[in-house]
Amino acid sequence: MIQIKHILIPLTLGIGTVNCYLLKEKSGFLLIDSGSSNARKYLLDELTSAGCTPGALKLILLTHGDFDHSGNAAHLQREYAVPVAMHAGDAGMVLRGDMFVNRKQPNWLARKIMPLAAGFGKKERFTPDILVQDGFNLSNFGIKAKVLSIPGHSTGSIGILTHEGDLFCGDLFENQDKPQLNTIMDDPTSAEASLTRLRSLNIRTVYPGHGDDFEMKSLKSDALQNDPQGDSTSDGH
Prior knowledge:
CATH class: Alpha Beta
Low-confidence stretches: 225-237
Strand order of the largest sheet: 1-2-3-4-5-6
CATH superfamily: Ribonuclease Z/Hydroxyacylglutathione hydrolase-like
Largest sheet: 6 strands, mixed
Strand content: 15-25%
């Protein structure tokens, strides 16, 4: 049985929180998302308290490239000697330090301010070790789960579906007030297609990037109506 540790990471300037999830089976740990760099010590303390030391962490898997999810990946990649995996569609974000690669382009000021506000500098840039695709099997890393391509929030957004029916969905869904599609969507049409696909799968519990986990069956049929026509100038949460 997969053990799930929810790590709630505070964001800079008190603008909210982001979820990381530490999965454990007998052979070791897998970290889903890495939080923002401003809370690095907090994340490292949480990993240590869970017994997740260098060597025990087998993989870091990023649901997408936004800086609040990828901010500590480079540090862990170096210090824990652990591979980082993500989808090729978002790899340019962490390679170039530009959260708007493969997205609608905001004004120039937003592009300059965003890395500073998120604490994503040159030291946080990195090259992913593994580029995953839909159906990628995680059993080689000790976790009985597979990767699902779920674009919408970004081109390279992915989910992780365990054999027990738990879905880690990044920012496709949120649950701040109620379960719904994330209010920030780069491609609403793709998000609708991702939602339709997920409804056809055997999913028990959804673990979003922001907000509380929820039962898939509680996601109402009007979830799409909560999605405006995207806003790429927002902070990507």
